[in-house]
Amino acid sequence: MITSWRQYADSHPRTVDVSVALLLFVSTVTATVITSSDPTSLTLWWTAALVEAVGCAALLWHRSHPRTVVVITVLCAGAGGLLGFLLSPLLMAPAMVALYWLALGADRRTARVHCLVAIVLLVPTTLVPAHSHHIPLVFKTVNVAFSVALPVLLGTAVQLRRAYFGEVLARAEYAERTREEEARHRVAEERMRIARELHDVVAHHLALANAQAGTAAHLARTQPDQVQRILTDLAGTTSSALRELKATVGLLRQTNDADAPLEPSPGLGQLSDLTAAFTSAGLRVTVTTEGVPHRLSPVLDLTAFRIVQEALTNVTKHAAAHTAHVRLVHSPALLTISVTDDGEGTAPTAPAPGHGFGLIGMRERAHSVGGRLRAGHRPEGGFEVTAELPLPPRNSPTHPGHTEPEEDRDS
């Protein structure tokens, strides 16, 4: 019921204001009848009724001129006191309502100033000799001051309560927006990661398949006995591409899909398969390892593998190279990956250092794990890609190899 009354009041403000003004006029007329100093004087009664009617009518403009309405109602209440009527809450009701509405909408300083002015104007009227009421003077003055201050305090309290709930609502809305933005940010990051995976998988396998097909076509007339082996490798390359594409695109499925792929991500442990595939395409790849290998986290292991894969793919696509060398250097704090080739740096299709989507993707992968990547031509010829990937401390709980103290001594 309270909600329906509020809805009606919001939709019919003028009707509410008129109803309040009429009720207050009835209360002031009742007060003048009860507390008149000369009940037989009709002139006095009509004068007081006219004054109070002006004060109640002024309330109709409290929304547009709240300060002016307070002044008019206070003056009307004071006039009633000067005419010999007791300043009771019934007689001062229009002024009290006007002060409440003012405190509800204005700042606290304005409300306090108008409250003090009303007290200063109304309290002296209780000292007028026309008052014949046998009521102690202290009670009359305190009653007037309290009646003026009470609506201001109530209006200020309601205003503070509304401000508090408004702040709570604003914070809740801000928190909701923040959660939505964070969710969108995570979705964008996941999409970028999947797009990077798709680029690396498709670019590598298509380039490798193209090189293997070209080699088979070249050897078809000169060395037909090797064509069958290359075609077998080509079938393995396309099959591997399909498996990796299925595993990558499978990340887009819902979590409740029963047939979602559970294949592990590739890592440096698959380097031998990777180099064998490039060998069948006519690129001889050698791998050397220095230092004690670390047990890498899945993210770091995948990043290192993709960098090597993309670097070798670029050698196949852009460099007229016959050999490539992959060098892995394990140190306590870094994993350094170097991929070099003996290609001709002046090849028309060779990308300039720092250019090309392959180099951009490798650099983004290195940065995603806090590392860095350099790429450029070597003075002795060929091209070199070097990535430095930071490793967690040996005694860090996040390090996959840290399970027992004995492992640290063995490593």
| Main sheet strand line-up | 1-2-3-5-4
What's the number of helices?
12
- Summarize model confidence as the mean pLDDT: 77
Rough shape? rod-shaped
Structural class: alpha+beta
Segments where pLDDT lies below 50 for 5+ residues?
254-262, 345-356, 395-411
Largest sheet: 5 strands, mixed
How much strand? Answer: 5-15%
Number of strands: 5
If you had to describe this structure to a student in words, what would you say it looks like?
- The protein has 411 residues and is α+β, with helices and mostly antiparallel strands.
- The chain folds into 2 domains: 2-174, no CATH class; 270-411, Heat Shock Protein 90, CATH 3.30.565.
- It is built from 12 helices and 5 strands.
- The chain has helices at 2-11, 13-35, 42-58, 66-82, 93-105, 108-122, 137-222, 224-249, 271-280, 298-318, 357-368, 405-410; strands at 284-290, 323-330, 334-341, 372-377, 383-390.
- The chain has a 5-stranded mixed β-sheet with strand order 1-2-3-5-4, with helices on one face.
- Helix 4 (66-82) runs parallel beside helix 6 (108-122).
- It is rod-shaped and about 135 Å long.
- The model is unreliable at 254-262, 345-356 and 395-411 (pLDDT under 50).
